[in-house]
Amino acid sequence: MASFLSAGDKPVVYILATGGTIAGASSSSTASSYDAGKVLIETILQALPKDEVAKYATLKSEQVLQKGSQNLTPSDWLKISKRVNELLKDKNIDAIVITHGTDTIEESAMFLQLTTKSDKPVVLVGAMRPSTSLSADGPKNLFDAIVLASSPLSKGKGVLLTFNGNILSASDVTKSSPVHIDAFKPANIGYLGYMWNNTPYFLRDNLQRHTTQSQFDISNTSSLPQVEILYGYAGSSAKAVEDAVKNGAKGIVYAGVGNGNFNDEVQKALIKASQSGVKVVRTSRIIYGPTPQWGEVDDEKYGFITSWWHTPQATRIILMLGLNAGITDSKELQKLMLSY
Ligand code: GLU
């Protein structure tokens, strides 16, 4: 752990670094190729204006992981979440900022949303350009995250993500561009708010259950149930479903076409999987908007669940946590989709 700034009575914001492009480095400041997760958090913090940071927060930092987020695993989520919960219990820490690769930041955000137990702000942040880039976006995003985390307005809002001046809820965030710096959009209703002139402006609240209202406890969990995401398309075969079952999946999230639909062959395989005890959740390859029950598929008859407003990747996390909590009844799992 490294102490960076001591600003007396300012909130203590603890920065947990995990790697990603925000910690990326390249030999060229203009080329698009680079290595993610190369620069340590203490160096990244040197790019921030110390006197400006000191107006908002006292910083402490820790390098908890150093990876591109495409290499993060559910064990890493458990590691991060347990460390965050430990820090949140410390009365000397007011808020947490997590620097993270953008590829799977939405998954870590959702996992933390459902497994951290505090009203204290937890803010995830990343960057699309490496730290060595001309016009790197990391320092400004990180500065915004520190200001957001230090604000009393952020308390009780659940896990947040700030990116390119926007504030998003972890319940409703999806990566929306593989390359552009405005890389995150809400999958449903809208941004929670905006950062402007070093102030968060919140426009709405998140009414989904999260953090202190979440029933999920991973403090004694060392591994999570295997849940696979499969993707639908015209002419998709049953093979992927059969392989997932054969390989030990306890759940399948099927990102179907349109309103979570699949062809007859896939449906037959999913029914068979469901009858064998594998939990099947219908969701959609369309990221935006809900996949509700009571469409073209008789979910109740087959024991299927639908994701409603969750992306396939968020759905997978809810299913993993539900199964980990011993919930196997489809109706109960359906209730989880609706309340988180
Ligand atoms: N693939 C890397 C990661 O997710 C870099 C992408 C990024 O952070 O923007 O960590």
UniProtKB/TrEMBL annotation:
Q: Which PROSITE patterns match?
A: ASN_GLN_ASE_1, ASN_GLN_ASE_2, ASN_GLN_ASE_3
Concerning InterPro entries, the annotation shows:
AsnASE_II (IPR004550), Asp/glu_Ase-like_sf (IPR036152), Asparaginase/glutaminase-like (IPR006034), Asparaginase/glutaminase_AS1 (IPR020827), Asparaginase/glutaminase_AS2 (IPR027475), Asparaginase_C (IPR040919), L-asparaginase_C (IPR027473), L-asparaginase_N (IPR027474)
Q: Where is the Asparaginase/glutaminase C-terminal domain?
A: 226-337
Q: Which residues form the active site?
A: 21, 102
Which controlled-vocabulary keywords does the entry list? Answer: Hydrolase
The answer, when asked if Glycoprotein is one of the entry's keywords, is no
Q: For this entry, list what GO says about its biological process.
A: asparagine metabolic process
Q: Which Gene3D superfamilies match?
A: 3.40.50.40, L-asparaginase, N-terminal domain
- SUPFAM superfamilies, alphabetically? Glutaminase/Asparaginase
Asked if the Swiss-Prot or TrEMBL record annotates the protein with the keyword Hydrolase, the reply is: yes
Output one GO MF annotation: asparaginase activity
Q: Which residues form the L-asparaginase N-terminal domain?
A: 13-204
UniProt-annotated binding residues for substrate:
69, 102-103
Tell me its family: Belongs to the asparaginase 1 family.
Q: What is the name attached to this protein's record?
A: Probable L-asparaginase
Organism this protein belongs to? Helicobacter brantae
